[in-house]
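User: Here's a chain of 482 residues. Predict its fold as tokens.
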Amino acid sequence: MKKLSELYENATDIEIKGIKINSKEVEPGDLFICTMGVTADRHDFIPDAIKNGAVALVVSHDVEASVPVIKVEDTNAEVPRLCSLFYDHPESKLNMIGITGTDGKTSVATITQTLLGNDICGYIGTNGRSCSKFNKDTNNTTPDGDKLYGYLDEFVQAGCKYVAMESSSEAFFRKRLTGITYKIGAITNITREHLNIHGSFENYIDCKCQLFRQIDKDGYAILNKDDELYETVRNSCTCNNIYTYGLDKDNTLQIKDFTIRPDKTLITYRYNNKDYQVISPLLGDFNVYNLACAILVCLATGKKMEDILVNIDKLFVSGRLDMLPNIGQNFYVMVDYAHTPNGISKLLNFVHTLDINRSIVVIGSAGERDYLKRPLMGKTVVDNASYAIFTYEDPRSEEPIDIINMMISEIKDDHKNFEIVVDRSMAIKRAIDMAEEKDIVLILGKGNETYQKLKHETIYFNDIEEAMRYLQERVDRERISV
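Assistant: Prediction complete.
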């Protein structure tokens, strides 16, 4: 809690209990910042904020209100500055680790936390925020500033020294991360995504690269040298130390060779002219890269390779390659967060290296997001999977069938390996009911998330729980029929 006069010179001494940018979340005693949202100008919600108890406003244009008003040039940019001050600059008390990239952010950030230890390293991202003291939800991959600095303060109070945070391109675009200086920044890859927000691929790349402009001069940049845009990212780095990972021997950490088995991955990494044999529980060649990236992050903290590798067997990323338990079925069911053409392609390529029969994919595409990727997603699925079931995924204000029709718009007429089941629950049931011996059902897009954002409401929905319910129903049904 602070007085408004502690946040702004010449302001009144009214006490501020919290800072909010969403009028619906305002509570008595809060300061309301009128930011520009994705589709709304939050100046329009000043009456609602005051009704809910806002005692002061921060605005970017003239308004009349019954509470004190502070006018600034850019309210979006003001959020991180103000919230940092309100929470006594928690970001400066932590070693901030930013993870960016089109695919793999959650995996690398989670792996980093596990390898460093969740007693000293917090995590913020798709799967919430967590450390050894708590595990809580978040509303965005990279939270809005009014929440982010409160979360960072939680980590400080929990005794954490590091925070591995998924740092999305949208967060940089929305100025949520303005003012944060990172100790370490790492990138997985860059492929086409989120053009609805950024307008062009060039703008998207630039927002990804912003992370590397915000690394402390004596900090570390961790780069994927095998990515097509490696040179572009490297040229954005302003820090003194650059570590790279990839297949070539000139990398800081070389991926020397690896063998993927159904239950583990055998990897040889080379670092400082020494080979390290690693048995990883994470599957897929993409996870060989994700693990390499996370290992370099840990090395950049000063941790020794031998100490890092001790925690390898603890690795698990919720919602990524989550294989559901066998409860009597003769096929496999897997849930994964893959939601980009590149991520989907890599996952399906991996799956077909396993000893399976058919791959049956349940997939949708989020509403109010990059609509240009939808046809490519649909084509990628039908070209690489045995069968696809198109359904909804967080349609928001869009009609689910319109999204699905865009996804199938580039599929050639001779492709008969797909169908449409708009209701996601029914789509999951359909996939499980049609599975035969040694088939694998892949439910993609949401991982272990616990919601679906519909037109007028957000409902509780979890792909893993839905799949387990229908899996149990099928197993029970078959037992009775025997």
